[in-house]
Amino acid sequence: MNAPFEGLDATGLRDAICAGQRGVRETTAACLDAIEASQDTLGAFLTIERESALARAEELERSDAEPGPLHGVPVAIKANLCWEGHETNCASRLLEGWRAPYSATSVERLLAAGAVPVGVTNMDEFAMGSSGENSAFGPARNPWDTTRIPGGSSSGSAVAVAARLVPLALGSDTGGSVRQPAALCGVYGYKPTYGRVSRYGLVAFGSSLDQVSPFVTSARDLALCMSVIGGHDPRDSTSLELDAPSAALRGEVALTGLKVGVPKEHFPPELDKGTRAACEAALARLEERGCELVEVSLPHASYAIPTYYVVATAEASSNLARFDGVAYGQRVDGDGSLNSMFAATRAAGFGDEVKRRILIGTYALSAGYQDEWYGRATRARTLLRRDYEAAFERCDVIAAPTSPTVAFPLGERTEDPVSMYLADILTVSASLAGLPAVSAPAGFAAPADDPTKSLPVGLQLTGPHACDERVIEVAGLLESTSDDHLKTPSGGAA
Amino acid sequence: MRETADLARLDLSDEECARLEPELDSILEHFKALSELDLEGVEGTASVGLQDVTRPDVPQGSMDPETLLARAPRERDSHYQVPRAVGGSE
Amino acid sequence: MSWERDGHVWISPQTGARWVPTIGLEVHAQLSTKTKLFCGCEVSFGAPPNTHTCPVCTGQPGALPVLNEAVLELAVRAALALGADVARETHFDRKNYFYCDLPKNFQTSQYDHPFCSGGGIELSSGVFVRLNRIHMEEDAGKTMHTEAGSLVDLNRAGVPLIESVTEADLSSPEDAYEYLTRFREILQFAGVSTADMEKGELRCDVNVSVRPEGEEGLRTKVEVKNLNSFRHVQSSLEHEIPRQVAAYEAEGAGAVVQETRLWDPDREETRTMRVKEGESDYRYFPCPDLPELHLTEELIESQRALLPELPKERRARYQSELGLSEYDAGVLTGSRATADYFEEAAERSGDPKATANWVSNELLRALGAGEVKAASLAELSFRPSDLSLVIQKAASGELHSKGARELVRECLRTGEGVEETIQSLGLDEVIDDSQLEAWCEEALEANPRVRDEVLAGNAKALGACIGPVMKASGGKADPKRITEVLKGLIEGSS
Ligand SMILES: [Mg+2]
Ligand SMILES: [Zn+2]
Known about the structure:
- The complex is a heterotrimer of chains A (494), B (90) and C (494).
- Chain A is an alpha/beta fold and 494 residues long.
- Chain A has 15 helices and 11 strands.
- Chain A has a domain at 10-255: Alpha-Beta Complex (Amidase signature (AS) enzymes), CATH 3.90.1300.10.
- Chain A has helices at residues 10-18, 24-42, 50-62, 105-112, 155-162, 179-185, 219-229, 273-288, 304-319, 338-349, 352-365, 371-391, 417-421, 428-433, 468-479; strands at residues 45-48, 74-78, 116-121, 168-173, 188-191, 211-216, 259-263, 292-296, 397-401, 437-445, 455-462.
- Chain B has helices spanning 2-7, 14-31, 65-69, and strands at residues 54-55, 75-76, 79-82.
- Chain B has a two-stranded antiparallel ribbon with strand order 2-3.
- By secondary structure, chain C is an alpha+beta fold.
- Chain C folds into 3 domains: 4-297, no CATH class; 339-425, no CATH class; 433-493, Arc Repressor Mutant, subunit A (Orthogonal Bundle).
- Chain C contains 15 helices and 20 strands.
- In chain C, the strands form 4 sheets. In chain C, strands 1, 2, 3, 5, 9, 10, 11, 14, 15, 16, 17 and 18 form a 12-stranded mixed beta sheet that branches.
- At the A-B interface, helix 9, helix 10, helix 11, helix 12 and helix 13 of A face helix 1 and helix 2 of B.
């Protein structure tokens, strides 16, 4: 495969373009060609927007305006982020063919910064899944081993960045949907503090948890991307009144003496041996750079999965009620009554996992069960938040594996929803607490099922509320201790 | 199961019900762990963060109706057309 | 079959048994904002379908609500006007149900923490109708049922409403009528709603049950909907109460089932609305897109300061301070616009009684008869200052009463100012006494019997001569002066 931007990250690519070393059109075209060539093996994209991308590239080249911070950088957009005029189908049959009538704030901000969206990426339907296998249009595949899952739900965006098809892709993270695939694909995936990036235009799954979240290949790109898409948006009432995080990383010096909390609950006995070893090695490298490791505890961690799934599915059951065949999307008529049209449309349009979660969420909110399920889960959520508050009294960031295993084979868990849900066991806590968390490349390990293979491992760094810069800076520090982030899969384009 | 599916307007076939029901049972069984927690005096967290977010009462303009209506599966005389409904809003 | 009534007791014509109804009302009132509850679309009436919609109020995937601050202000003012307690903390909940004109298939409303509770309205009988609660919510769209299916217009979707629910403190159709009249005028006077039923700005549902006089506890209540005017509310109760009694008498306990019935004004009956499938289970939960609200002392006091004197107090003051009759006081407080107009004109003219007469006999009459194009006195180009000028001119004798009336009607008709109209009507032309005497003599000659009758003691006979003199003067002569001249001529000649 050809390398559309020769291993450059978004910052490097922008600099090369601005220095006149590369053209925007040339970069865009190379990128589109590489994506097209990868589709059969990786399936990262649902739509490739060649025409609009090239038109935009040309427009950027002709423009006399001051180049933006992402000038000429090709980007990919997850299929649940509205991009005006483009198909935003959430990898669902129900929304097949639906072109968003407006753009999400995050997409608008990418465009305003000079980025060139090249296509819409594959995902688990309505962001429900941890493997990418719940896409109505077939799964994306892990570029490190195409018989394996890339993780989910932002599967296509993770694959696109890991395979170096684009240097930057937007995903969305509700319970780990960016961090987990980032870990499994060996790239950076960053879930900002809840409210740091506008949710306007992100098709809602669990509204109190969802965050638009980027994938990139370097820590400095995290800072760059957050400086573009972050910041207050008056169209989202849950948007924090804070400026976008800074585009620049402070040096290593600022991080000397930093206390890195290690929660014992996130290193459980059943953790994959290879994953544990890689994470411990990464922690040791941080220690060498002057960080102090301290043991902390998140006593309610074992309740995170049920808490998360009850809250997220309850919200989802209400959020997804709007897909009824009236004003948009596909419709199935039923027996001629309005209610049968609703029920037939939804039965035909939603896949199994979406149905499962709508049913769980509906049940968790319904009369007679609400106190037991939704009510208890929101109160358990309070306990989880307090766990973090207590832990952050003892440390500056918390470090733990992102995923309990490396990428597992396609099809391995599709028959067992509970084992699939457990893939999120280490990521949902930060989501419930609304905290900033990054998954950073942290080496490689062999999967339990095949000792001959070497697959990426991610280290998750979680910070206190609104301390997004700190989290990104620690990721930068870790990055400086190895070249893990520079390794690319042979299945990729680089 | 049927009741829940009706509430959620999901027209499930018998085959689907038979398949989904044990799955849902096992999921809920796993989630039952929540009932172990002592939540005495703990307030719920329904959402994270902010308070009192409002906007001024200033018209922002509406969208071109054709843009939205064109996306409807069926449109008639600038209305969204649906099968004949009974009942009404609350 | 006619039903005899003894106060609130209905006497069955079949059995002579005595039955008592218990009535509660649920009233939805539209708040007078420029834009919708959660988006910047203008609130409109009669606009072409779906022209006042956007991604938010049509429930497009990804769109998010932002609360209109004016809604909060008006809702708080309404609560204060109704004597209710404003909660310090409140939030919005989602009420989940499917219907074609509810774009998100949940209504953003309030459930267990409405923004206010308590308060109520005293009826003329002295009965205090307690309010259980008032909450804020969004309106749904409008569905038109046609042969070609149902057609949905979302212009109303997202319009801000307050829903108020009374305790079951009403016990007659007349009570219900009076309550609604008072409720509407309070909202109108407080400036929170124009509450025009024809525009759907005020909608009412009735809950009614009956029980034998003296029986403890309440029987099954029935909800009656589709009540498009206060008259419909009253008539539907006049039919629903006997229907329930007759059912109990014919079939015994259990004859009345809990249901929603529709009032059919043409056939003058209520009938069962087709029963909805399944039990209503709204699965309320706090809306995760809308942060909690704190209704501050500052907000509440600022709204209290804007609260005008309410109709009940104004009526009392008009009687005690301005010496108006109860009837006149009632007419003049029929709307805020009328009362404000009257008060300004009365203040300027210094003659409340004369002002009251002019407002009710001329201005409201002209408005009611459709002689002027205005919805209320507030829209008249004939301002309170114009009316007070006319009153002063009439008092000083500059205008005679007939001329003054003609002047006001002409001003209303043409929209011209008072002084211009006096000139154009020639009301400023002075008729000299010799001319008047000549016309009077002519009239007496033409009606010789008048002189004899007046001399015989019948002063009223003069009337026959006044008309011809007025006619001869082109309507400019003062009838009072004509009478004096006529009398003088008759007396002088005898
Ligand atoms: Mg309501
Ligand atoms: Zn709108």
